[in-house]
Amino acid sequence: GTGKTSLSKALAHKMSIRLAHLCKNAVMIEIHSHSLFSKWFSESGKLVARLFKHIFELVEDPETLVCVLIDEVESLTSARTNAMNGSEPGDAVRVVNSMLTNLDNLKVTH
Predict the structure, then answer these.
(1) Averaged over 28-35, what is the pLDDT?
(2) Which of 28, 41, 53, 72 has a Cα at 20 to 30 A from 7?
(3) Higher pLDDT, 86 or 20
């Protein structure tokens, strides 16, 4: 409601323009947090793995600027909090942990 997503998209667009001399391509990947959770047990972790496999493939190209926007990220943190309180299934914890681990790996890799 405050325009965080719109601001993030505008910033990514501005970065792609400013860095055009370094990066021929620019890609923005928008992750909707609710789409990472599946009703099927252990399927959520596979969704996260497929998503980050695609992101890592894009990042491999040094001429591509990759911006990742995680929309409604607060739903991930609430899922983790609820899981710690025992009110959320264990699969939610795995999704959040997988997201955090992959984001850390993405940061370290590039």
Answers:
(1) 86
(2) 53
(3) 20
